[in-house]
Amino acid sequence: MIGRLATTTASGDPHVVPCCFALLDGILYSAVDSKPKSTQRLKRLANIEANPRTAFLVDNYEDDWTKLWWVRVDGTARLVEDHPERNVALSSLAAKYRQYIDQPPTGPVLAIDIESWASWP
Fold first, then answer.
1. What are the residues whose beta carbons fall under 8 Å from the beta carbon of 87, sequence distance 6 or more?
2. Number of other residues whose CB lies within 10 A of the CB of residue 51
3. Count of C-beta atoms within a 10 Å radius of residue 107
4. How far apart are CA 114 and CA 72, in angstroms?
5. How many C-beta atoms lie closer than 10 Å to residue 105's C-beta?
6. How far is CA 5 from the centre of its chain?
């Protein structure tokens, strides 16, 4: 399952990207991993430095519309510099995504301190 991180550029334009995530104690974590990228200094990181307000959406689509659902969290994002918190975040991500066991993310770790939830149905 993936989520979509929504940030805003310094000029106010929306920016949405899919990303892996883990939820732990009211904090949503994501990391810049080794999937192919032109740089580890991603636009989402610059956006968060300019404006840390974020939204994160996880949804499920199926042809059977009785199985549709979504969950969105809104919060304030920050880059995790603290090594104990970074290690907890990476362990949580590795528990969810097998690929992170073989190739632990080496890039920045993002934390969203969740302030509100919305869901449907």
1. none
2. 14
3. 15
4. 10
5. 22
6. 6
C-alpha–C-alpha distance, residues 48 and 43, integer Å: 9
Helix (H) or strand (E) holding 46: helix 43-50
Catalogue all structural domains in the chain, each as residue range(s) with its CATH number.
3-120 (2.30.110.10)
Contacts 24+ apart (CB under 8 A), 54-63: 54/5, 54/6, 54/7, 54/112, 55/5, 55/6, 56/3, 56/4, 56/5, 56/6, 56/21, 56/28, 56/112, 57/3, 57/4, 57/6, 58/1, 58/2, 58/3, 58/4, 58/21
* Residues 46-103: tens digit of each pLDDT: 999 999 999 999 999 999 999 999 999 999 999 998 889 999 999 999 999 999 999 9
Query: What is the rounded distance in angstroms from the CA atom of residue 8 to the CA atom of residue 15?
Result: 6
